[in-house]
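Support reply, case 0932

Customer input (verbatim):
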Amino acid sequence: MPYPVASAFPPRSLRTMVTRPIKDVIASEVVALFNDRSRGEKPVVRRPDGLFGPQAVAWRVHGDVTSMMVGGVAGLLLQMLHPAVLAGVWDHSNFRADMHGRLRRTARFIALTTYGGRPEAEATIARVSAIHNRVRGTLQDGRAYAANDPALLAWVHVTEATSFLDAWMRYGEPRMSAVDQDRYFQEMARIAVALGADPVPRTRSEARELIRRTRPALVCDARTREVARLVLTQQAPHVMAEPLQALTMQAGVDLLPSWARQMHRLAMPSLSRPLVRVGTLGIARTLRWAFQ
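Our regenerated output:
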């Protein structure tokens, strides 16, 4: 009869006792980052009766915390290159005093429309549309702008969707099929149409074409650079989150198309890119582990 051999790993119950508190702390910090407890916000419960459902590509793309943060930074930097989008934010929001709040509200909109029940999702879309209807003004060159302009809504939509998908493919699913990429744009088109955007891309190639056609209208001036500075240097919610936030911001800049980095004058040394990507991938894996 063979001698019993000691396991190379502690018993599962002991491992659980050690790792569970660590997971709980990490998950709690992330939940607090995206939910304003002072307003009674709680994590959005995933419901199968929403706009999409568990089989949707959006469920897996939007369910990854790290890639959504990275994609959110890149998307915002792209959006601000459009003078009318920038003016709407500059003239009608308190982003300079509450940048984190703005990013958190955007994240909550994505969560509610992706995972919430249909009534929740539709109410959220209606609320955002009502806000857009009140935002209008005049650009520095005298042209009028309105946040509910279908073309502006299309630019905001395509930059967000493209950035979220690109971040997911870089840090979550590098071999994502072209079919699923197109499915993602088809799914996101439902939100864009409901908000009043036009034109709305329904494939990856249509999204690239919309960005290409919009590029001549993009500008990077002193106000654009000020917004980018505020986005990239915002104070972390607490000291422990500072390294995570700094790396997320660098990963967001790295995700930008080269032409957008050049417009923003955001240099990304080639030697630093592998370090940023490896570090961000490490964070992504840690957060996935914590939320298992």
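We compared this against your earlier run and they match. Two observations from our side: The first strand starts at residue 136 and ends at 138. Strands lie at 136-138, 144-146. Please reopen the case if you see a mismatch on your end.
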